[in-house]
Amino acid sequence: MVVCEKNVLLLLFAKRKMDRFMWTNGLLEMNETLVIQQRGVRLYDGEDKAKLDVGGVVLSTHRLLWRDQKNHECCICIPLSQVIFFEEQAAGIGKSAKIVIHLHPAPENKEPGPYQHSKYSYIKLSFKEHGQIEFYRRLTEEMTQKRWENTPVSQPIPTGTGPKAGRTRAVGIVGIERKLEEKRKETDKNISEAFEDLSKLMEKAKEMVELSRSIANKIKDKQGDITEDETIRFKSYLLSMGIANPVTRETHGSGTQYHIQLAKQLGDMLQAPLEERGGMMALTEVYCLVNRARGMELLSPEDLVNACKIFESLKLPLRLRVFDSGVMVVQLQSHSEEEMIASALDNVSDKGSLTAEEFAKLLGLSVLLAKERLLLAEKMGHLCRDDSVEGLRFYPNLF
Amino acid sequence: MSFEWPWQYNFPPFFTLQPNVDTRQKQLAAWCSLVLSYCRHRKLYTLDVLEAQESPVFNNKKIERKLSVEAIQVVFEELRKKGNLEWLDKNKSRCLIMWRRPEEWGKLIYQWVSKNGMVNSVFTLYELANGDDTEKEEFHGLEDWMLLRSLQALQTDGKAEIITMDDGKGVKFF
C-alpha cells in the first residue's frame, strides 16, 4: 500500500516536488521528544498544494513530521536543522493561516522521500483547523534552542551545517535573499548577545584591550616601518585610555618621558589649589581637579600616581605622602608636619575637645584629611581619644 | 567619709582604651591605683567582674562614660601582673583584690603586736580580725583568707607560727 502510493506520487509529480522530505515510520527516536502536534494541516510545496491529503503535523525536538490523517502509514519528516527560517502568513478570505518554512537545499545523501526534486526552496503548512499560533510559538522555541544539536538521534539525518553551507549553494534571487536574511540575523544575534549579558560585554572589552596590546607589540617589533611620531601618538592614546603599555616602560625605564612631563605640569597646576586648602590635598581630590581641568585626554589614576611619585626626584615643591591608614595625599614641601600638629593641639585645647568633623569645618579641610591630622597628633602623644556612642572625640593628652 | 575621685575619673578619654602605647601605660597606671584605692575605701576584698561593670568605679554616670568589658579585663590583667589581683576561677569572673599585699598586712599586724608588747602570746584568728582590741586597727575586719596569707608571710619570715586548735586556727608571734 505504501509502496504503491510512493510510486504513484513519483510518477505523477516528477517536476514539482518538496524534495527535502523523507519517509519515516513516524516513531520518535531516543532523545527525541514530542513538542506539539496539530491536525488538519495541508502541506504546500512552495505555492502549490502538495498532492498529499490533509494530515497532522508533529513537531519534535529534532524533526518536523507530517502524517496523512486517512492513511496513518504515510508519514514523512524533515530534520529541523534543514530549516533556515520561517514566518507566518495571515489567513485571508477563504484561505487558512499558514506557516512558511524556508529550507536548505537537500543534501546529496538524503534518504528517499515523497519528492525527488522541487523547484521551490520553501514549503507551507496550512492550518485548516487553526492551531498555527501555538505551533509557530513552539517552532520558534525549538529553532532557538536547537535541542537536536545536543542529543543527536541514532537515525542518520543529514543536517545542514549552518548558513555557510547554504551560502555556497544558493543561486539566484532566492540565494541573495537568504544571504541578506542570514546577515541580518547574525548582526541581530551579536547585538543582543553583547547587550544581554554585561559579562559578555566585559569579555569583548577584554578582547579590545588584548587587541590594542598586540598592536602595541607589533609596533615595537616593526619599529623601523612606522615613524617615531606615530608610535608615540599611538602609545599616548593607549595611555590616555588607561592601558598600561609595557613597551614604554621598558624602553624608557621608570619615570617615562610622559610621566616626567606630567609631573612638571602637575607641579604648576596644583600650587594654587594646595595653598588654598592649607597645603594638603587627598590624591582623589587631585585626580578630580586635574581631570576636570583637562576636559579631554583625561589622566588615568595609575598615571597620576606614577607622576606624583617622582615629584621629589624632579625637585618639584610637591610631595606624595602615604598615611598609615593608606590614604594618599599630595602636599606642599613647605608644609611642615610639626607646625600642623602644634596648631591641631592648639585648636583642640581651645575648644576642649573636637571631633574630626568639627576640626574639618574649623580648618576648611576635608573630613578625611582632618581625621588623618588628628590621628597623627594622637600618635605623637599630643592628643588622646574618647570613643563612645556619641562618636570619636579628641582631647589634649592630659595623662 | 566619701571617696575622693581622681581627676581622670571625670576626663572622658579615661574610659576609652588608648591606642597610643605611652598614653595607654599612663592610663592603666591611673586605673590600677583608682581600683585599689576604691577597694581599700570600701574594704572590698573580692570583685565580681559583671557586677564591677555597674559599680561607680567603672561607670561614671555624670559624664555618661563607662569602661568596656574588654578594657576592664585589661585593667584586671594589669593588676594581676602587679600582684594585686588573683583570679578565683578559670573563667575569670571573680577575683581577689589585694589593695594591700599579704606581706604588707603581715607587717602591720606584727607592728601592732610588738607595740602592745604581746609578742610570745597566742591569738586566735578571730581575735585578731574581729576582737575588740583591734577595732581601731586597719586590719580589723580583714577577711579570713587574707589574714591567713598575711600570717603565712610572717611565718615565712620566722616572725609567727600558725597553730591549729580545737575550734579553728591560731597564731603565735615571736
Structure in words:
The complex is a heterodimer of chains A (399) and B (174). Chain A is α+β, with helices and mostly antiparallel strands and 399 residues long. Chain A has helices spanning 2-12, 132-145, 147-150, 163-169, 172-196, 198-221, 228-241, 246-252, 257-276, 283-294, 301-309, 337-351, 356-363, 367-379, and strands at 22-23, 34-45, 48-49, 55-60, 63-68, 75-79, 83-89, 98-103, 122-127, 280-282, 318-322, 328-332, 354-355, 383-388, 391-396. In chain A, the strands form three sheets. In chain A, strands 1, 2, 3, 4, 5, 6, 7, 8 and 9 form a nine-stranded antiparallel beta sheet that branches. In chain A, β4 and β5 (63-68) form a beta hairpin. In chain A, α4 packs antiparallel against α5 (172-196). Chain A is elongated. The model of chain A is unreliable at 9-17, 155-167 and 245-254 (pLDDT under 50). Chain B has 174 residues and is α+β, with helices and mostly antiparallel strands. Chain B folds into two domains: 7-97, Arc Repressor Mutant, subunit A (Orthogonal Bundle), CATH 1.10.10.570; 102-173, Winged helix-like DNA-binding domain superfamily/Winged helix DNA-binding domain (Arc Repressor Mutant, subunit A, Orthogonal Bundle), CATH 1.10.10.10. In chain B, α1 (21-42) packs across α3 and α4 crosses α6. Chain B is elongated, with a radius of gyration of 19 Å. The mean pLDDT of chain B is 88. The interface between A and B is medium-sized, with 14 and 17 residues.
